[in-house]
């Protein structure tokens, strides 16, 4: 059995020597941003045998008729050079270099609201425990095996004014928590729209995140909406882009009404504004 495996492996290594490997110029992505890599040279999605980023398998999809891959770079991904390797069924190989650049992460002190116990040690540890169980509930959500969307992603509000950006570090007591989403100005009751077509995977009230909706867009891409005053959708429901899924509020760990929105790619939270800009072309 062993020699068969080695023979199969050597095929991949020998082929590039024959001139079938295309190495594309590297491009730069900031820590915490997403990359949308498109391969116009590949005729169709079904020509692709396998895609890996940093050795991990990725799912390719068709966006505007072009085979594409969305990669989420973690806020703490070590800066440096990485490769996205696309193997085609005809044994050709495309290597796209991706350079991860360090993001400046400002720090800010943030207390615990009185409604969650204020700034006491016991309120801090209760807060951290709730956060861990809520994050565990979010981490185990399943995703569709194909993309549910085809249109570019759109903002979740009619008037999208950012009040708190993605990526800064909040110091709460002795804990450091990265802000892994974007906060938008949104008075209580402001309609929140689905950013693209997708399936609702979570619609419930959390102690810290408040009333929360997670929309799965397939292949590990999810949009999350927190601190809502009202949830208009149910788990399993297919939502269309622009559909009102809920109303903004200040439920959970929020001092004032606003919309917290996060984007996750295979569990990695990315900067929602940078993510939206990928589709603005
Ligand atoms: Zn937030």
How would you sum up this structure, described in words?
The protein has two domains: 2-101, Peptidoglycan hydrolase domains (Immunoglobulin-like), CATH 2.60.40.1590; 107-277, Glucose Permease (Domain IIA). Helices cover 16% and strands 42% of the residues. The chain has three helices and 21 strands. Strands 10, 13, 14, 15, 16, 17, 18, 19, 20 and 21 form a ten-stranded antiparallel β-sheet that branches. Strands 1-8-7-3-4 form a five-stranded mixed β-sheet. The chain has a three-stranded antiparallel β-sheet with strand order 2-6-5, with no helix packed on it. It is globular and about 65 Å long. Bound molecules: zinc ion (ZN). Residues 164, 179, 181, 183, 260 line the site of zinc ion.
Name a few traits of the molecule.
281 residues; alpha+beta; Immunoglobulin-like; Glucose Permease (Domain IIA); ten-stranded antiparallel sheet; five-stranded mixed sheet; disordered N terminus; binds zinc ion
Strand content: 35-45%
The largest pleated sheet is described as: 10 strands, antiparallel
Per CATH, the class of the largest domain reads: Mainly Beta
CATH topology of the largest domain: Glucose Permease (Domain IIA)
What is the overall shape?
Answer: globular
CATH architecture of the largest domain: Distorted Sandwich
Number of strands: 21
CATH homology superfamily name of the largest domain? Glucose Permease (Domain IIA)
As an assembly, this protein is single chain
């Amino acid at each position: 059995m062993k020699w068969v495996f080695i023979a199969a492996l050597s095929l991949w290594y020998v082929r590039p020597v024959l001139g079938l490997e295309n190495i594309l110029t590297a491009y730069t992505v900031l820590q915490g941003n997403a990359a949308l890599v498109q391969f116009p040279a590949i005729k169709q999605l079904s020509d692709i045998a396998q895609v890996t980023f940093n050795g991990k398998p990725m799912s390719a999809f068709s966006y505007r008729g072009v085979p594409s891959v969305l990669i989420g770079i973690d806020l703490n991904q070590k800066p440096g050079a990485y490769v996205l390797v696309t193997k085609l069924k005809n044994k050709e190989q495309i290597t796209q270099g991706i350079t991860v650049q360090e993001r400046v992460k400002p720090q800010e002190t943030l207390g615990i609201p009185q409604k969650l116990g204020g700034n006491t040690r016991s309120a801090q540890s209760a807060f951290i425990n709730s956060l861990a169980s809520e994050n565990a509930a979010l981490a185990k959500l399943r995703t569709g095996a194909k993309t549910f969307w085809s249109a570019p992603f759109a903002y979740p509000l009619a008037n999208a004014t950012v009040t708190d950006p993605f990526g800064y570090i909040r110091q709460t007591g002795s804990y450091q928590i990265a802000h892994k989403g974007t906060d938008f100005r949104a008075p209580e009751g402001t309609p929140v729209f689905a950013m693209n077509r997708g399936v609702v995977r979570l619609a419930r009230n959390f102690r810290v995140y408040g009333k929360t909706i997670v929309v799965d867009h397939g292949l590990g891409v999810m949009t999350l909406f927190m601190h809502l005053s009202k949830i208009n959708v149910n788990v399993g429901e297919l939502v269309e882009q622009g559909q009102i899924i809920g109303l903004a509020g200040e439920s959970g760990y929020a001092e004032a009404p606003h919309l917290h929105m996060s984007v996750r790619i295979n569990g990695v939270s990315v900067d929602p504004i940078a993510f939206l800009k990928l589709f603005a072309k």
